[in-house]
Amino acid sequence: MSRTAELVLGLIGSIVGLVAGFWIIAYGNDVTDYIQTFTYLNGALGDSIATLGWITVIASALALIATLLIKKSPRGWGVVLTLIGIIMFFVVGQIWIVSGISIILAGLMALFRVPSPKY
């Protein structure tokens, strides 16, 4: 079965997440007031803008790998995509909205899409 919709949504979410992560790393200190309002983590991890950026980049890279492998094992990689999308909402927060929604949708579509019967 074609998994084009999952592939496109996963690619969009992963690429936007990578851009957002590198944006946080590069410009995070200049917009610290804005970034601090949308992180859900407190303490050392939540106070380090660069750490949040690198976590975003790593999660987006994992989502990109899962997206590219979704045709081989849709259910397994769908679970990975869904978990990455949900966990990152709590780690990064509002900057993850576009990435998270598209990655979660791709993961759920991979999990629940029923293959068409072959006659």
Number of strands: 0
Low-confidence stretches: none
Largest sheet: none
Beta-strand content estimate: under 5%
Shape: elongated
The residue-averaged pLDDT reads 82
Question: How much helicity do the residues have?
Answer: over 70%
Number of domains: 1
The helix tally amounts to 6
Order of helices and strands: HHHHHH
CA-CA gap between termini: 14 Å
Q: What structural class results from the helix and strand content? A: mainly alpha
Radius of gyration: 15 Å
Give a structural overview.
By secondary structure, the protein is mostly helical. The chain has one domain. 74% of the residues lie in helices and 0% in strands. It contains six helices and no strands. InterPro entries: DUF4064.
What's the arrangement of secondary structure elements?
Blueprint: H1 4-27, H2 32-37, H3 44-47, H4 49-68, H5 74-91, H6 97-112
Q: What are its keywords?
A:
119 residues; mainly alpha; elongated
Briefly say what this structure is.
With 119 residues, the chain is mainly alpha-helical. It has helices spanning 4-27, 32-37, 44-47, 49-68, 74-91, 97-112.
